[in-house]
Design a protein that fits this description.
The complex is a heterodimer.
Chain A: H1 6-14, H2 20-31, H3 51-54, H4 58-65, H5 73-76, H6 89-100, H7 118-129, H8 139-150, H9 155-161, H10 168-178, H11 186-194, H12 198-209, H13 214-230, H14 234-245, H15 252-257, H16 263-267, H17 275-285, H18 298-308, H19 317-327, H20 331-340, H21 345-352, H22 357-365, H23 374-381, H24 383-393, H25 401-408, H26 414-423, H27 429-441, H28 450-467, H29 472-489, H30 494-505, E1 513-518, E2 521-527, E3 533-539, E4 542-543, H31 555-583, E5 587-588, H32 590-596, H33 600-606, E6 611-612, E7 617-621, E8 626-628, E9 634-636, E10 643-645, H34 648-654, H35 657-666, E11 680-681, H36 685-689, E12 693-694, E13 701-703, H37 704-713, E14 717-722, E15 725-732, E16 737-740, E17 745-746, E18 754-756, E19 760-763, H38 777-794, H39 805-822, E20 827-830, E21 833-837, E22 842-846, E23 852-854, E24 858-860, E25 862-864, H40 882-895, H41 903-909
Antiparallel strand pairs in A: 1-2, 2-3, 3-4, 5-10, 6-7, 6-10, 7-8, 8-9, 12-19, 13-18, 14-15, 15-16, 15-17, 16-19, 20-21, 21-22, 22-23, 23-24
Helix pairs in contact in A: 4-6, 7-9, 8-10, 11-13, 12-13, 12-14, 17-18, 17-19, 19-21, 20-24, 22-23, 26-27, 27-29, 28-29, 31-33, 37-38, 39-40
Chain B: E1 2-5, E2 15-19, E3 27-29, H1 30-54, H2 60-69, E4 71-72, H3 85-97, E5 101-105, E6 108-110, E7 116-118, E8 123-129, E9 133-135
Parallel strand pairs in B: 1-8
Antiparallel strand pairs in B: 1-2, 3-7, 5-6, 5-8
Helix pairs in contact in B: 1-3
Chain lengths: ~900, ~140
């Protein structure tokens, strides 16, 4: 204690008249002294304080301060080590008190135990109780000490108690507080008992085994297990255990502790398999239902084990039945198990003895896939048993099987669900998903109206899909449902199905015209030369310009009008299909082209699109069996030959692009999409010299939100990189390439934000950049075309108020030059403004936006006269653009402000008080 | 020769438009001169769209040139409408009478249509247009 000057401190402490400040100074001196390092917590043992200090009046004075300790944070929390969490003021005082306890009775310190830090509690208690070490307390004193701490027993106290040697009597003092139901403390408690001698321990065991409280009995069982492990009192333990086993209504945990096989044991094991274990688990589950949940309760834990429990190869159905009889399981329980654990089906089948159970379970497992066998399976099992199974299954609120049963029994129709769908909120995703699934499930009728029904459903799905808008859930579900319909209709894939369906829609238009006559009218639905549907009403051989009123509600007219809409949609889709096929370099066999020509609309479109392969290039004719070449020849296609839709890049390469253009123009061909007259982008010299990137659109100002929409519409991904910043990229499937741009885009921003376009580059799947000249020309061209469209539509350069410096500069020059020619002297240009000192005031005109302010600050609204029509005058004017001309006009107007006659300008110009004159 | 002037960033004021006259040192009225220049302007515009106005087809030579600049496109082929020459001249004359633009020839402002302009070897002409303004 060299560093604490006791002689100086003690008098201050002992003097009852010393002030609080003086006392605090002493405390700081004692507890924060350098001897203890940075923090008083580093004190190893409270004995380190001199005894004279421990037994001093300081204890009492601090005790008096304890209730108001929080008022002096600077004293009690002052010099904590910043690395350690701060203790509350009261904790600090309690800790200090524990160090100052000295030879006072233990009761003095017990009130502060709850607030004390663990370390201090431990020091205090272990030091006082380890009397074998350094006897301080008599047995009576120990007991009173224990009774003091009895109600404060917690983790840290238990830890120190286990290190003490107690007699049975000592423990009795704290026993009630020791045996509270806190699992994590059990091992400490057991250790405290285990350090008793054999006789004492035997007493404890006997006492506990017959105790009324469960905790004591369980502790006894626990202790006996430990004893057996340590080979102590084995005979007694055996005897007590045997007695215990005779009790009735043993709990699982008791069985477990007694070493009786119990389901509890299984819960702790990793792999639980085999019939025997299955029945143990079922027994453990008792009356509870099997549940599919991750909750931490017994039914859920047993259910989980049952779910994964698999039969051994050696497990026979007979053994299963034997166990089943023993456990007296109900029929419902087996059905439930069947729905829960597929692996036990054949055993359950054996026990139940239901004919058709296995097949039924197959159907319940995958109703849509098994739909064709439904009737057979249903008949075999019988309605009564089927309903029993449905009843079990309906315990699961997500179950759809009873509805599906009704669907396959023919009790529910497609339209019923369509109606139901209308009533369900668009954001009730779960219910909608179910309904879409049902819609896809309903079997198509057999016989004559199958085709019509198929067409009807396909169109229904298409309609729902179209109105789904941004509802991604609906869209996904409809696609699923359409795929189910495709399967039901027996098609190989969706595309084949789609082409078939579309062919059906226009089947009767093979000759491009359908006519229906009634009364004096003739209705005509036809396809025009560009594949679009046209509906006309003809009366007396003349086409009516407008629909006669009498026909407005005629069903045939309505039908035709509906079909026009339908065919238009189809034509749009087919055009897109052809364009996509060109860009993805898809190949077509002559057979496919031939089958495409069965659709009159597609045939019209196809015949205006150039196809090619290495041998030929031309328009398909003769139902796709030949190509019509530039030289006007019909060249038949060979067996096994494939074609693709020609991108103008290919024509450019072959050097006959000009001729194709001329031919297309001369023959007045209308192509379904931009093919021959498509913009082609090629790699420039400058781009070859760049670092595998194109800076063609570099630094162009674009509106970010707008650009995101445009990118997405063209099939690009715009994904947030971090926070809200996003980058655009497009995956080019057939070359495994990514086109990317480092342009910074923003997602989720409400306001429009300007950004500037950066670069475009291509990477492979390893993120290596690829030189632009190595990118297939078509890919390069199409990518740049996308970018060009995005940039030119999202471009904000022209409309932005912030004009580039060069624009402002050239306008300043224009104004200066004009003023020089006109000898106007009161105009100056500077800093992006024209400054005019007129006779009525001073003005400034912004050279970017053209906005006018009267100095100081008053905004003047002057606009081009809307009554004067803007006529083109073909003279080489000096200004670059109309805005420059407007700005110049404003400047000259204001330079001669005394000549202004327009009352609206004047009223803005003159201060109100001048208006009187 | 007549040069129309523009103002540019580099003070080098290059002509944006040049008209070569057959006869030099001749005198014209402003009206005659406007007529002459409008004629020239319109003919030029129409020659630009000449064969292409009816056909969007790009010739092989055009394709070759555009290819090098990195993009072959079919825009700007039909932007300019067919012009009626007399109508265009009448409109220009009318606009001058309405003070829609000023004319400076060799730094001197011409105020009347009938004013005679003596052209020299190389003439600098400036057309400054104005927009009628009102308060809004």
């Amino acid at each position: 204690m060299a560093n604490i000057d006791i002689d100086k401190i003690l008098p201050v402490i002992q003097n009852e008249n010393s002030s609080q400040e003086e006392l605090f100074d002493c405390c700081k001196e004692i507890f924060y002294s350098h001897h203890y390092g940075k923090s008083y917590k580093n004190v190893y043992k409270y004995e380190d304080l001199p005894e004279v200090l421990q037994n001093s009046i300081l204890f009492d004075r601090l005790e008096a301060l304890y209730p108001i300790a929080d008022d002096y944070p600077d004293v009690f929390m002052g010099k904590e080590n910043p690395d350690e969490p701060m203790d509350a003021c009261k904790t600090v005082v309690a800790n200090w008190l524990s160090m100052l306890h000295g030879s006072r009775s233990f009761e003095r310190i017990t009130p502060y135990l709850p607030e004390m830090s663990h370390k201090f509690k431990y020091w205090l208690v272990s030091d006082k109780l380890l009397y074998n070490h350094k006897p301080r307390y008599s047995k009576a004193e120990t007991q009173s000490l224990l009774s003091c701490i009895s109600s404060h027993i917690d983790y840290s106290l238990l830890d120190s108690l286990t290190r003490c040697k107690f007699k049975e009597k000592d423990i009795l003092v704290i026993e009630d507080n020791l045996l509270v139901d806190k699992k994590h403390q059990d091992s400490f408690v057991l250790n405290i008992y285990l350090q008793l001698n054999d006789d004492e321990l035997a007493n404890v065991l006997r006492r506990f085994v017959n105790a009324k409280t469960r905790k004591k009995r369980l502790t006894a069982l626990d202790l006996m297990q430990k004893c057996k492990q340590k080979k102590r009192l084995t005979d007694l333990c055996d005897e007590l255990q045997t007695q215990y086993k005779k009790r009735t209504n043993l709990l699982d945990i008791e069985k477990h502790l007694l070493g009786i096989e119990s389901p509890m044991v299984l819960l702790g094991q990793n792999k639980v398999n085999g019939v025997e274990n299955l029945f143990l688990l079922l027994a453990g589950l008792g009356k509870h239902k099997l549940v599919n949940s991750s909750a931490d309760n017994f039914p859920a834990r047993y259910s989980e084990k049952i779910f994964y429990c698999k039969p051994f190869k050696s497990d026979t159905k007979e053994v299963f039945q034997k166990h089943a009889l023993e456990l007296q399981l109900s029929e419902e329980r087996f059905l439930e198990l069947g729905f829960f654990a597929e692996q036990w089906w054949k055993y359950i089948d054996y026990v139940l003895g239901w004919k058709g159970y296995l097949n039924a379970m197959q159907w319940f497992d995958s109703p849509f896939e098994m739909r064709n066998q439904f009737n057979e399976i249903y008949q075999e099992l019988g309605e009564e048993r089927w309903q029993k199974m449905l009843k079990i299954d309906s315990q699961d609120p997500e179950s759809q099987l009873s509805v599906l049963t009704d669907i396959f029994l023919g009790n529910l129709s497609f339209d019923t669900f369509l109606e139901r769908l209308k009533e369900i909120s668009p954001i009730d995703y779960t219910t909608r998903r179910k309904i879409f699934y049902y819609l896809g499930t309903i079997p198509l009728p057999k016989g004559n109206n199958r085709q019509a029904e198929l067409l009807y459903r396909y169109q229904c799905f298409q309609d729902i899909f179209r109105v789904a808008g941004n509802n991604e859930n609906d869209k996904n579900c409809i696609q699923e449902a359409i795929l189910m319909l495709v399967d039901e209709a027996g098609f190989f894939d969706l595309e084949a199905f789609q082409f078939f369906m579309e062919k059906e829609i226009v089947k009767d238009l093979k000759d491009r015209v359908v006519e229906v006559a009634f009364d004096e009218y003739k209705l005509r639905l036809s396809l025009n030369p560009i594949g679009e549907p046209v509906f006309e009403v003809i009366k007396n051989g003349a086409v009516k310009r407008s629909l006669p009123k009498a026909l407005k509600d005629h069903p045939q007219v309505k039908h035709f009008k509906e079909r026009v809409k339908q065919i238009k949609k189809m034509t749009t889709r087919l055009r897109r299909f052809l364009e996509t096929a060109m860009c993805s370099e898809r190949t077509f066999s002559p057979q496919i082209l031939n089958s495409f020509c069965e659709n009159p609309v597609l045939k019209i479109l196809l015949e205006q699109v150039v196809f090619h392969n290495s041998r030929l290039m031309g328009y398909p004719i003769n139902n796709g069996k030949a190509l019509f070449t530039l030289d006007g020849e019909e060249v038949a296609l060979r067996e096994g030959e494939v074609l693709q839709i020609t991108h103008p890049c290919e024509m450019l390469k072959r050097g006959d692009w000009f001729r194709w253009q001329a031919e297309c123009f001369a023959h007045e061909r209308v192509q379904p999409f931009k093919q021959i007259f498509r913009e082609v982008y090629t790699v420039t010299e400058a781009e070859i010299n760049e670092e595998a990137e194109s800076l063609r659109f570099y630094n162009l100002p674009i509106e970010a939100g707008n650009a995101v929409g445009l990118f997405r519409a063209r099939g690009w991904n715009v994904d947030a990189d971090s926070d809200q910043i996003a980058f655009a990229s497009k995956y080019i499937n057939h070359y495994s390439l990514y086109a990317k741009s480092d342009t910074v885009l923003y997602l989720y921003l409400a306001t429009s934000v300007e950004t500037t376009f950066e670069n475009i580059y291509f990477v492979d799947f390893k993120s290596n950049r690829i030189p632009l000249q190595d990118i297939p020309p078509l890919i390069f061209s199409e990518t740049m075309r996308d970018i060009d469209l995005v940039v030119s539509k999202a471009y904000v350069g022209e409309t932005s108020w912030e004009q580039s410096t060069t624009t402002k500069e050239s306008r300043a020059l224009l104004i200066n030059e004009t003023c020089r020619l006109l000898d106007i002297k009161n105009v100056k240009t500077d800093d992006g403004f024209a400054w005019i000192s007129g006779k009525l005031g001073s003005y400034k005109v912004h050279l970017g936006s053209g906005s006018v302010h009267q100095q100081p600050g008053n905004y003047l609204c002057i606009i081009p006269d809307p009554k004067v029509k803007n006529t083109n005058i073909y003279l080489p004017f000096v200004d670059k653009d109309m805005v420059s001309a407007i700005i110049l006009s404003k400047v000259l107007l204001l330079a001669n402000d005394e000549t202004i006659t327009d009352p609206v300008i004047l009223s803005q110009l003159r201060p109100p008080d001048l208006m009187i004159f | 020769m007549i040069e129309a002037q523009t103002v540019g960033k580099n003070k080098k004021q290059s002509p944006i438009w040049v008209l070569n006259l057959n006869t030099i040192s001749q005198t014209y009225t402003l009206q005659e001169m406007i007529k002459m220049i409008v004629h020239e302007e319109v003919t030029h515009l129409q020659s630009q769209q000449s064969q292409n106005h009816l056909s969007p087809v790009r010739t092989s030579a055009e394709i070759e040139v555009m290819h090098k600049t990195g993009m072959v496109h079919f825009d700007d082929k039909t932007k300019n409408p067919i012009l009626d020459l007399d109508d265009a001249v009448a409109k220009a004359i009318q606009a001058f009478e309405n003070s829609m633009f000023y004319v400076f020839v060799n730094e001197r402002q011409i105020h009347a249509l009938s004013e005679e302009i003596k052209l020299i070897d190389k003439n600098k002409i400036v057309f400054i247009r104005f927009v009628p303004l009102v308060g809004g």
